[in-house]
Amino acid sequence: MTRAKSVANRSATADSLSEADALRLREDFPILKQLIHGKPLVYLDNAATSQKPQAVLDTLTRYYTTENSNIHRGVHTLSALATVDYEASRTKVRRFLNAADDREIVFVRGATEAINLVANSYGRQHVHEGDEVIISAMEHHSNIVPWQMLCQERGARLRIIPINDDGELLLDEFEKLLGPRTKLVSIVHLSNSLGTINPVEQVIAMAHSRGVPVLVDGAQSTPHMPVDVQRMGCDFFAFSGHKLYGPTGIGALYGKAELLESMPPYQGGGDMIKSVTFEQTVYNTLPYKFEAGTPNIAGAIGLGAAIDYVTAVGMDRIAAYEQELLAYGTQRVSSIESLRIIGTARQKGGVISFVVKGIHAHDLGTVLDTEGIAIRTGHHCTQPVMQRFGIPATARASFAFYNTKQEIDALVRGIDKAIEVFS
Ligand code: 7TS
Fold first, then answer.
1. Domain at 314-422, CATH from 3.40.50.150, 3.90.1150.10, 3.90.1300.10, 2.60.40.4070
2. In this structure, which residue's CA is closest to atom 4 in ligand 1?
3. Is residue 112 lining ligand 1, measured as CB closer than 6 Å?
4. 328, 16 in Cβ contact below 8 A?
């Protein structure tokens, strides 16, 4: 039995991981045992990418050691094994998101590619001159630029749902933006720079009442809370494997089958076709129509292992534990007088963005690094959020289930040290 499974079984009735569970689970992540500048690594940059458990590393090694082969093509044994494992991972993603059908899961490089796929395929099919696409003021650049490119090409207009000073969506303003020209709404589930968890079900209901489909950018939500695309009702959902304790270069797009069926392919090449002549190509069925070329086979299989791992721990227990870390961290950093938290929404995930008076975020990050503490500093690919709050950058601590309150204490000591150095 893996450690994740044994921890899950031991306290299956509890609704949150305990600190002791977190300490045991940390043991599954070899990278966390390192010293950085002679200090134990305190990894608080999980929103950028999360660390990988041994089970994922072993799966990648096993794949390359024993079954590396191209999929969907060979009659030989290795090709059959690789194909079975690759397709088994699709089923794992489908179950993890609670999608209705494996055909609704398209493997892509990550959230960015998933959004570009929808913009280029659905977007080009449906968005024409004078039409409108709605996003929010807290989107990652990956959920801004593809729509901007589409709107520029089509002579369409990008409309922005504003946010309040806490970093919450203004739903009244959203209601006003929805109109007969609205062709699509694309909205982040959990903001990477503010931590806000958006009321996506409400957003979807409002859009659907006007017949407008909704894409949810789940890059930050998928690793930190249970996701159910059917209950949510979204039309498209995008996420990245590397933030979900899986490998880089793999992620998935969920799309409702009838929408994906009606959309043209995004890229042309091998695997996405049924037959090709110079006169005509017949496209493959779902989801292969959207998976041109040899995909990231090892990545998909590794992502399946990551999903097995977090499922054994329990997504609801992960979410509950990270809420405890968020509450503790918020209270601890708030005690620092010169520190201001950016992003104080009522519903938040485990992200604390902040500025410290008189210290640039990068200088703060550099001092913390000397203490072995990894945080992210900058605009976090959300420059419009920085503009909204009138700041150049924030320092951001983002949590995972393997973090502890002691690590938050270390962060606070590190910030205090930086304040001393720069005062
Ligand atoms: N959407 C959100 C909300 C994100 O946070 C990110 C990455 C992306 C999309 C893009 O994901 P990718 O895997 O395709 O690159 N966010 C971050 C971050 O906060 N720091 O580094 C990457």
1. 3.90.1150.10
2. 219
3. yes
4. no
The segments of the chain whose pLDDT lies below 50 read 1, 8-14
The pLDDT of residue 277 is 95
CA of 379 to the centre of ligand 1 (A): 12
Quick one: which of 297, 256, 267 has its CA closest to 121? 267
- Its CATH architecture, for the domain 59-311, is 3-Layer(aba) Sandwich (3.40)
The reply to whether ligand 1 has any atom less than 6 angstroms from the CB of 217 is yes
Secondary structure tally for the chain: helices H, strands E: 16, 17
Q: Is 111 in the pocket of ligand 1 (CB under 6 A)?
A: yes
| pLDDT tens column, 39-48 | 999 999 999 9
Report phi then psi at 35, rounded to 5. -100, 140
220 lines ligand 1 (CB under 6 A): yes
Report CA torsion sign: 366, 367, 371, 374. Answer: negative
Determine the atom of ligand 1 nearest the C-alpha atom of 47: 19
Residue the block writes with tokens 């503490």: 373
Catalytic residue among 145, 149, 381, 391: 381
Asked if the domains at 59-311 and 314-422 fall in one CATH topology, the answer is: no
Domain ranges for the chain: 59-311, 314-422
Residue 381 a catalytic site member: yes
Buried b (16+ CB within 10 A) or exposed e, 400-421: bbbbbeebbebbbebbeebbee
